[in-house]
Design a protein that fits this description.
three-stranded antiparallel β-sheet; 206 residues; elongated; 15% strand; 5 helices; 5 strands; alpha+beta
């Protein structure tokens, strides 16, 4: 039976990309295994930081505590105000900070557009494939300096990124008529009969 890509499977693909034997345990103490896992984690964060349909959420509510501060979870990669505002919101010291008002204090709930960081195994397969191939190229360059392996892998990387972008556009249903939160507000043209005096006379005669 087909199974989804696991972190162990991704690490083994990275290792075999440079001719190393696969492992059965990520905790076996092998330095190359540990390095491959670190590279996979780095690339995972870098790719998700771009913001994709699977890890971006619009108008997500963040509620202030009793002191007016809003703690930001550690798996938030980026956030922004939802819609036009005078605020300039950033993450500072693990809390929401308004650079425009120079304050950590907020009244009530703030609805923000958020880019989340998810575990590798919680990602869609298209994202895992791209991250694994890209990590394999980074690992090949760092561990053995193999320009041949990197050159070959770059072609795969381009193709896997194209697949991920296709997944993103299909799932996002993007359109020039969409609002920022991804919902379509556009109403197509609907032709109707011109109401003339002749039409009115015809109605009266019925």
């Amino acid at each position: 039976m087909a199974t989804k890509t696991t972190k162990l499977a991704a690490v083994n693909r990275i290792l075999t990309n440079v001719g190393q034997a696969p492992t059965t345990n990520l905790e076996d103490g092998n330095p190359l295994v540990e390095m491959a896992e670190v590279v996979l984690s780095e690339v995972n964060i870098a790719v998700q930081s771009e913001g994709w349909i699977f890890n971006t959420e619009y108008a997500y509510p963040f509620t202030a505590d009793s002191s007016g501060c809003i703690a930001i979870p550690t798996n938030v990669l980026a956030l922004d105000s939802n819609g036009p505002t005078n605020s300039f919101l950033v993450i500072r010291s693990g809390k929401l900070y308004d650079k425009a008002a120079h304050t950590y204090t907020f009244a009530g709930t703030q609805n923000l557009d958020v880019t989340w960081l998810f575990d590798f195994e919680d990602l869609p397969e298209a994202a895992k494939e791209y991250i694994t191939i890209r990590a394999g190229n980074v690992f090949a360059g760092r561990s053995v300096g193999s320009s041949e392996a990197v050159a070959f892998g770059q072609r795969e990387e381009v193709m896997s990124r194209a697949t991920l972008m296709e997944y993103d556009t299909q799932q996002g249903d993007y359109s020039i008529f969409n609002t920022n939160d991804g919902y379509t507000q556009y109403n197509s043209y609907k032709p109707c009969l011109l109401y003339t005096s002749d039409a009115a006379d015809e109605e009266d005669s019925v």
